[in-house]
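Late entry, written up from scratch paper. The run itself happened at the end of the previous shift, but nothing got recorded in the book at the time, so transcribing now.
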Amino acid sequence: MEHGNVPIMKPAILVTGGAGYVGSHTVASLLERQDATDFDIVVVDNLSNAYRTEGRKKPECLRIIEEMTDKTIHFYEVDIRDATGLSRVFENHNIDCVIHFAALKAVGESVQKPLEYYQANITGTCTLFEIMRKFGVYKLVYSSSCTVYGEPEKLPLNENHPTGQGLTSPYGKSKYFCEEIMKDICRSDKKWMVISLRYFNPVGAHHSGRIGEDPSGIPNNLMPFIAQVAVGRLKELLVFGNDYPTADGTGVRDYIHVEDLAEGHVKAIKLFHQPGFSGFHAVNLGTGTGYSVLQMVKAFEVACGRQIPYKIIGRREGDIAANYADVSLSHRLLGWRAIKTLEDMCADTWRWQSNNPDGFKCS
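Output as recorded:
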């Protein structure tokens, strides 16, 4: 598109960490929208948790999304701590808003590697904000976490529950610190619009079975662990503790289908166009229902038609007994609600894992 002799660039949505699990499904959701031709999608990712076939420029998940949607994704292999690399992305595209996923995200691992987590999640986020400000981009959807609430004082958790108290992992602390930074920059400059989406536990896969969660190494999250046991990649599921004060002694979490979660980001972006919208807003994304580890195992056994062997071991450092969301604010503010069932979560995970037993390596 040109205006006189000056090319006019289409507005672009920048997705950091867009080759990761939730990021890639959000990219798919954005490109599946009817108005997807109105904007460009730009992804930056350092590929620390994404697979790329040798000799290809783009990671497999993005290549498959392009195939499925017949749309182009602009991809840059850039770490968000690289200010020069990020600046180049902003120079090349007319970035209108940013969806910021890029982060390290394993609770247990963060206890063992706190410096790495603070470096990636806090330093990286601050670098991104500096570059956004430099280029006059002030609209941000942030990938936060229910871990900012720490040990719940009461359930379900709503957005008014205190944050930052009794946090059990550097991962949770890093998300909390970033939220505090975002509140401060919104107070200091009214141009900023920040929606911090506090996820509960994303699971499932794209309904096509072509993209899904493909963690490097042994999975840190329950559902891919169960799925890899079901497909024979791993011998048995390790259940971290059965002495919690829950119905069956195993941890209870609010599991949300990744496609519902992705749609939450699409809804959040629309808020930026509402007159008078500004400042920092935190919103829970969950279903409002908690399931235990053993309930998830049973549901997955039904979906895959196989028994899932498991072994109970000690509690994992940083874990809490139970959490699930009060999701009423997401209904009111975003006009969003989770519609996929536990059966959908298990069936879609199994479709992805059984069609791709080695993840993206065999796509």
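The two ends are 35 Å apart (CA to CA).
(Scratch paper discarded after transcription.)
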